[in-house]
Amino acid sequence: MGEALRRPTSIDVSNPRLYQDDIWRPLFAQLRRDDPVHYCETSAYGPYWSVTRYDDIFAVELDHQNYSSASELGGIQIAEYPKGQERQSFIRIDPPGHTAQRRTVAPIVAPSNLANLEALIRQRTATVLDALPRNETFDWAERVSVDLTNMMLATLFDFPAEDRAKLTWWSDVAIANVESPDAVVHSEAERTTELVKMGEYFRKLWDARVDAPPTFDLISMLAHSEATRNLEPREFIGTIGLLIVGGNDTTRNSMSAGLMALCENPAQFELLRARRELIPNLVSETIRYHTPVLHMRRTARNDVELAGRQIRKGDKVVMWYISGNRDEDKIERADEFIIDRAKPRQHLAFGAGIHRCVGDRLAEQQLRILWEEVLARDLRFELMGPPQRLYSNFIRGIRSLPVRIVN
């Protein structure tokens, strides 16, 4: 039975152009309907399984005995790093190593610290919004989404504020598809060079803090933890890169996607203005509807069956969050943007299980405060052109969003 079900097929959803051109929906609808755990024999990334339904993705997420995130088996992306250039970090480690390293950084996003950050996030958000031009076109992604997120990252790392644009640059370098003509780097060697520079910058901060009493920032936490104080150079770079990307991409792209969705669905924007208590729902619906992380990959540790398909040890298994979040069998009217859903937090955009996004509540907090401050000013927006989307099959990025404030 297994061989018959591993048949070659033309349905390959790994092409980054699908997401840059925003034409992915029909393919995933077909897969969910006809072949929800689907074997693609030939792609630019080799053969892989696509897991496209909500419940099947959830099952893979929770089963780390059979489905591994380990970098030595391939890591978390459909695209693999060249041998010897893998960037190991705790998202690319299975338990028990994963557990200890994740626990090191978790206090920075604990509820008590989020409460401490509330006033600072609100003050910064207010400052950014008040500085926006009126009645002229500007780039929301640059002026709002990027600015707010790299300020937050600088705070979490206790990073020099004057250099915080470097954090956005390194995030862009880390996630870049080097095949894209407009990528910030154009080869793995160039990416490595830039990330080594990142490591050198952070190593200076690290060395200063390892010799000082512990403080409540990510670098000090890592430097003083038994689980992370002796990271190898590549793991050091991988861990810093993970924290930068994790603290940046979901939030900044959801800030842009939220405004775009509200402008494209004006009735929902009016509902939000009439019922501000729906702001937390809006945040969750934005994250589901946009799905900033398109996929996560696992590698089968054993021969295993999933939804009637026989997956072999060593197979690449790709969980398409973008598809699971549009699963009509799980989420009613899943292709629609609806801010008053009964279960707005029912989505896969943060993952699930042991690898669920550690900073999910901080991301939600930043988005909530942004929309509270937008509504407090009764800002009204007009989209002035299409977004410029990232060429990627991993991050659903919005590089530019031209808008105008019309009041």
What's the short story on this structure?
This protein has 407 residues and is an alpha+beta fold.
Notes on the protein architecture:
One of its GO terms (molecular function) is oxidoreductase activity, acting on paired donors, with incorporation or reduction of molecular oxygen. It comes from Bradyrhizobium uaiense. Pfam families: p450 (PF00067). The chain has 407 residues and is of the alpha+beta class. It contains 16 helices and 12 strands. The chain has helices at residues 2-5, 17-20, 25-34, 54-62, 97-105, 111-130, 140-157, 165-175, 188-210, 218-224, 233-246, 249-264, 266-274, 279-290, 321-324, 360-376; strands spanning 37-40, 48-51, 67-68, 137-139, 295-300, 304-306, 309-311, 316-320, 381-383, 388-389, 398-400, 402-405. The strands form 4 sheets. It has a 5-stranded mixed beta sheet. It has a 3-stranded antiparallel beta sheet with strand order 4-12-9. A two-stranded antiparallel sheet has the order 6-7. A hairpin with a 2-residue loop joins strand 6 (304-306) and strand 7 (309-311). Helix 12 crosses helix 14. The chain is globular and about 60 Å long. The N and C termini lie far apart (63 Å). Mean pLDDT is 93; it is low at 1-8.
Topology:
Blueprint: H1 2-5, H2 17-20, H3 25-34, E1 37-40, E2 48-51, H4 54-62, E3 67-68, H5 97-105, H6 111-130, E4 137-139, H7 140-157, H8 165-175, H9 188-210, H10 218-224, H11 233-246, H12 249-264, H13 266-274, H14 279-290, E5 295-300, E6 304-306, E7 309-311, E8 316-320, H15 321-324, H16 360-376, E9 381-383, E10 388-389, E11 398-400, E12 402-405
Parallel strand pairs: 2-8
Antiparallel strand pairs: 1-2, 3-5, 4-12, 5-8, 6-7, 9-12, 10-11
